[in-house]
Design goal:
By secondary structure, the chain is of the alpha+beta class. It is built from 13 helices and 15 strands.
């Protein structure tokens, strides 16, 4: 087995993965070139063509002596048949399910998406592994995006975070207590990149905290979110940006794979639109991207702007203070914006029949009150 590659003195700049097809091509190339280790962590893994391609690449890597570790959420990947990973395991790979399905802690899920190769290259974003992510987001496949990065200051904590989750995947009591400890470390002075990890602590979320802090002085905000159900505090922060003379543009889902979340999110448009926040809904395909750009700061990863991502799921976001990266991200936003329909306050008001308003209120109640309450009960009984 060849030795692991060392960290380069001047790592290449992060590279946007603008479509699922591009992301999968780059990821499969990296798997084929892996020399020492592969860490793969996803919420959803499908038994389909895309899943088969990744399974074959992982198995081939294990056969040539690469250490292969796979961590999948037990709920998100529950459709995989028994024995799906048999060949990989027989070749020396390790596969674990995060939080095996029981009534005890079923509400707590691992929503992270990460592929880490040889501790020198990582892929993050909204993509899971399945055929619905493998297209261009326009003519076929869901609209999603990600990032390829080789920044040591991010790679090291990403590897450590995977190892921690992999070791505690069964959520036994002692291991679970370790996972609930705060994970965020302060950035060093001048550091332009930081990994923001979160879990079911119902109130502490470093991505949310970073976002709120930046919004206090923000001038130009662009957010893409597939499931959008922000808290009152976050909605107020977005409104305040506009009141100070800044701009806030939200690109949200026109089509969704979770109708309840879509219904709840649309019920919250009113106060934002009335304040001058501009909202577009993506039209060609289901929108699954997660991106926030606040002036020259970029957030990319697995987290949505909703109650579950901010307080219940395990999530992974990376923050970059990088003007060129932000400029390229704004270009991606503009390209998707041209394929979206702007929602005006008048349009929204006319669409909100009493029946639809009632359904939206109930959907929001279930997702912002009942779901967190259930997670809190499970956390309390297991602590």
């Amino acid at each position: 087995m060849a030795p692991a590659a060392s960290f380069p003195d001047s790592p290449p700049a992060p590279r946007w993965l603008a479509t699922g097809a591009e992301a999968y091509r780059r990821m499969l190339q990296a798997l084929a070139a892996a020399q020492s280790s592969i860490r793969l962590e996803y919420y959803i893994y499908r038994d389909d063509e895309a899943g088969g391609q990744f399974r074959a690449a992982l198995t081939a890597a294990a056969r040539r002596g690469v250490r292969v570790q796979v961590l999948l959420d037990a709920f998100g990947s529950s459709a995989l048949p028994t024995g799906y990973w048999q060949e990989l395991v027989q070749s020396g790979g390790q596969v674990r399910s995060f939080n095996p399905l029981t009534w005890r802690l079923f509400a707590l899920r691992n929503h992270r998406k990460l592929l880490l190769i040889d501790d020198t290259l990582a892929f993050i974003g909204g993509f899971n592994i399945g055929d619905e992510y493998a297209g261009d987001g326009i003519t076929r496949g869901w609209r999603d995006l990600g990032l390829e990065l080789a920044t040591p200051v991010a790679l090291r904590p990403l590897a450590a975070a995977f190892d921690r989750m992999f070791g505690a995947s069964s959520l036994r009591h002692r291991m679970f207590q370790r996972l609930r400890r705060p994970w965020r470390r302060p950035r060093a002075a001048g550091q332009r990149c930081a990994v923001l990890l979160s879990g079911p602590r119902l109130g502490h979320n470093p991505f949310r905290a970073n976002l709120l802090r930046l919004l206090k002085k923000a001038r130009h905000v662009q957010i893409i979110s597939s499931y959008f159900l922000p808290s009152f505090r976050l909605r107020q922060a977005l409104r305040q940006v506009v009141r100070r003379g800044g701009t806030v543009d939200l690109l949200l889902a026109g089509k969704s794979d979770v109708p309840l979340a879509h219904l709840a999110g649309r019920s919250r448009y009113g106060m934002l639109l009335k304040a001058g926040v501009r909202i577009w809904e993506y039209q060609p395909q289901v929108l699954h991207s997660k991106l926030a750009i606040v002036d020259h700061t970029v957030f990319v990863g697995s987290s949505n702007l909703d109650t579950r991502s901010f307080g219940i799921n395990y999530e992974l976001m990376v923050r970059f203070d990088d003007a060129p990266l932000a400029a390229d991200g704004r270009g991606l936003f503009a390209a998707d914006q041209r394929l979206a329909r702007e929602i005006t306050y008048r349009d929204w008001r006319q669409s909100q029949t009493w029946h639809l308003r009632l359904r939206g209120m109930w959907a929001a109640f279930l997702l912002t009150k009942v779901d967190p309450w259930l997670a809190h009960v499970q956390l309390r009984t297991f602590s």
